[in-house]
Amino acid sequence: MPWSNQNGGGPWGGGGDNQGPWGQGPKRPSGGGNGGNGNGGPPDIEDFFRKGQDQFKGMFPGGFSAGLIAIIVLVLAVFWIMQSVYTIQPDQRGVELRFGKPKTDVAQPGLHFMFWPFETVEKVDITERRMSLGGGRGDPEGIMLTGDQNIVDLSFSVIYNVTDPKSFLFDVESPIETLNQVSESAMREVVGRRPANDVYREQREAIAVNVKSIIQETMNEYGAGITVNAVSFQDASPPQQVADAFDEVQRAGQDADRFQQEANQYANKELGAARGNAAVVREAAAAYKDRVVKEAEGEAERFISIYDSYRTAPDVTRKRLYLETMQDALSQSKNVIVDDEGQGVVPYLPLDQIDRDAAQRTQRTLPASSSTQNLTQGASQ
């Protein structure tokens, strides 16, 4: 070393033979030991490797070279087996390729073997996945024009899964990107044919079904091996620039619906009351009709009975009718008739009370007297 010849010590001075840079020599093992050189020095590395090589040669009859080749071959065999054996999980399907050309069969879940490197395998996840499209508030990707020249900010999702792994891997270059573009185009097409209210509230389910049908037909034409399970709306709202005006329109529409419902309730109430009153009037009219008919029938029967009596004894019946008629007529009169013998009694009669009693009797017996007069006229005829 360069510093070993300077004053016989290390770079810091004070060193002597067998001394280190800090003035103290290294400590060496005492005695030869199994790994030493017999003079108390460190173990000999070359002797150690030589003994290991001799032991390794003893393990292989062909010598070191043959053993090394056998190990290399064994390692390569293990590596080849590891590359040739593969596992398909339950949510996967595999497509084997021989010299880059896909085989006809699709590998099902389980353990499989192939001749690597001449054969390889491509694995496909077949679980149901969701793709979100459109935008949110203010995202240009979600801005769409409706059929009534309105603008909506729309976001939706497409739920799909891979049903044909071979077509999914090799028939379309980028099937997921293709599905994204086809879904957005289909949504814009359907929304562009419908008014904004259909997108906001009324016809979302119908729009989703229509979009799903268009996406599936297009992906089938491409042969992408994808099945669209559902299309669902996540959000549909007006752009931020016109959100306040749209909210006002929505509130006005809700108020109109509420007023219409209240008007319908009032109309139903009044209609029910009118129908009830009409039923009451009809019932009263029917009752009055029955009463009048019954009274007329009774009067007719009474007249017939009197007429039968009259035919049997006309003089007696005529006199009886005359007396009854005169009784009814005179009982309603306000006049007081007395003979010559009763003149002195007239000033003491309560004429006012007689007049009031006569008026009351007139009111009570007016219908009966009318009937009697009619019967009298009929009898006289």
Automatic annotation (TrEMBL):
One GO term describing the cellular component: membrane
Topology class, membrane: Single-pass membrane protein
Keywords for this protein: Hydrolase, Membrane, Protease, Transmembrane, Transmembrane helix
Organism whose genome encodes this protein: Martelella mediterranea DSM 17316
Gene Ontology molecular function: peptidase activity
Protein name: Protein HflK
Membrane-spanning segments: 59-82
Alphabetical list of SUPFAM superfamilies matching this protein: Band 7/SPFH domain
InterPro entries reported in the protein's UniProt record: Band7/mec-2_domain, Band_7, Band_7/SPFH_dom_sf, HflK
Homology family: Belongs to the band 7/mec-2 family. HflK subfamily.
Secretion signal span: none
Quaternary structure (record): HflC and HflK may interact to form a multimeric complex.
Localization per record: Membrane
Compositionally biased spans, kind Gly residues: 7-18, 30-41
Residues annotated as domain Band: 83-250
Location of region: Disordered: 1-47, 356-381
Compositional bias of kind Polar residues: 360-381
Domain of life from the UniProt record: Bacteria
Gene name linked to the record: hflK_2
Any one biological process term the GO annotation gives: proteolysis
Function: HflC and HflK could encode or regulate a protease.
SMART domains registered for this protein in UniProt: PHB
